[in-house]
Automatic annotation (TrEMBL):
It comes from Humibacter ginsenosidimutans. PROSITE patterns: PROKAR_LIPOPROTEIN. Keywords: Hydrolase, Signal. GO terms for molecular function: hydrolase activity. This is SGNH/GDSL hydrolase family protein. CDD domains: SGNH_hydrolase (cd00229). It holds the Pfam family Lipase_GDSL_2. Residues 52-212 form the SGNH hydrolase-type esterase domain. Transmembrane segments: none annotated. Residues 1-24 form the signal peptide. InterPro entries: SGNH_hydro (IPR013830), SGNH_hydro_sf (IPR036514).
Length: 229
């Protein structure tokens, strides 16, 4: 082999290794409460483990679980995501599997993650405001006391393409106060789907895959602004 050809071969091999390494850095490992557990990427044990607590919007209702916005965050940041979110659940609202967020909190404690991310839920609309606030405070206190070294992140509730109802504003405010009281972080994403067509599925409750991406991008920007990523 000529010196020139040998040099070109070496350059191609080195370039492929660099590209492969960059691609690998963008991958994450995901476990879903729905039972979807893709094969973990090599070296997953060294990844940051993040647990998601939430409702059907966070579990990607009507979509492949990999399209849910917490899973998109895992892909952006190379996290190992364990998504405990389930349809119908809220701080007070009982989910389809008979649990509320407090039950997901208890499960998260057993997993001992580096971070927990959760969001307020429209499932709690119509519930007693005092009961919602009490459940929020209890959830945050449990996470803080039993996972003292875990980063706690709360995200404002997601609504559809219309103006959100006033009770959701109250849920937003109460959640912000509850997480900040234990030294956690609050990510206010506003209404990223407002007046944007094609963001909601036919039920006008659950985001489309495109809507999930918009939410993920908004949360990622909020994390970036607080230097959490």
């Amino acid at each position: 082999m000529s010196r020139l050809r040998f040099a070109l071969v070496c350059l191609c091999v080195a370039g492929a290794a660099v590209v492969g390494g960059l691609v690998a850095c963008g991958l994450g490992s995901v476990t879903s409460a729905k039972g979807a557990t893709p094969s973990p990427t090599e070296g997953a044990s060294s990844m940051r483990t993040v647990v998601a607590i939430g409702d059907s919007i966070m579990d990607g209702h009507g979509l492949d679980p990999s399209q849910a916005w917490p899973v998109q965050l895992a892909g952006y940041n190379g996290w190992r995501m364990i998504n405990l979110a389930t349809d119908g659940a809220g701080f007070v609202s009982v989910g389809d599997n008979g649990t509320i967020f407090a039950d997901q909190v208890d499960e998260a404690v057993q997993l001992d993650p580096q971070s927990v991310i959760l969001a307020g839920s429209s499932n709690d609309l119509g519930e007693s405001e005092s009961a919602i606030e009490k459940s929020m405070v209890s959830a945050m206190d449990t996470l803080h006391s039993k996972l003292p070294h875990t980063t706690i992140i709360a995200v404002s509730p997601v609504w559809n393409e219309k103006q959100q109802p006033s009770q959701l504003d109250l849920i937003d405010d109460d959640l912000a106060s509850a997480v900040k009281a234990v030294g956690g972080h609050y990510i206010e994403i506003g209404q990223p789907l407002l007046n944007k067509p094609g963001m909601m599925q036919g039920d006008d409750v659950h985001p489309t895959a495109a809507g999930q991406l918009v939410i993920a991008a908004a949360v990622q920007e909020g994390l970036r602004k607080q230097h959490l990523v």
